[in-house]
Design goal:
Helices cover 41% and strands 26% of the residues. A hairpin with a 2-residue loop joins strand 2 (38-43) and strand 3 (46-50). It contains five helices and five strands; from the N terminus they run βααββααββα. By secondary structure, it is an alpha+beta fold.
């Protein structure tokens, strides 16, 4: 079974008061749901998401990554972002990749000022300023 494991820096989110923690998780779940990826379980602050797919359908799962890495707040607050493959027959770990360390997946972490600017721009686009 394939999983994405995500953890947001919840303490930092609460301290910064820039984004709403519940809204952040809801955005992640909505983005995943558009790609038929659903919440599976959590362990502590790490949430696991999966999709019932063929093991070779990797490109579909990478579409989730591409959508999330465009979000400034996500890049700022993401703490754990892993791809995990568990063998269906033995339940043993087959492969795990820390997506924050992958050369093809590494993205620039925004500054707090860039995060605040993205928030302002978001509300301006929505007409909420």
């Amino acid at each position: 079974m394939l999983f994405f494991a995500l953890e947001l820096d919840e303490q930092r989110i609460k301290e910064d008061h820039i984004v709403n923690l519940d809204a952040a998780w809801q955005t992640i779940e909505d983005t995943f749901a558009q790609r038929d990826v659903t919440f599976h379980h959590s362990e502590g602050n790490i949430r696991y998401y999966t999709r019932n797919i063929d093991k070779h359908d990797f490109e579909y799962l990478w579409m989730v990554n591409m959508a999330m890495e465009k979000e400034v707040w996500f890049r700022y607050y993401i703490k754990t972002w892993m791809y995990i493959d568990i063998d269906d027959d033995t339940n043993e770990l087959y492969e795990d990749e820390d997506l924050l360390d992958e050369p093809d997946m590494v993205f620039d972490r925004p500054t707090k000022e860039q995060l605040e600017q993205a928030r302002i721009q978001h509300f301006q686009e929505k007409g909420n300023t």
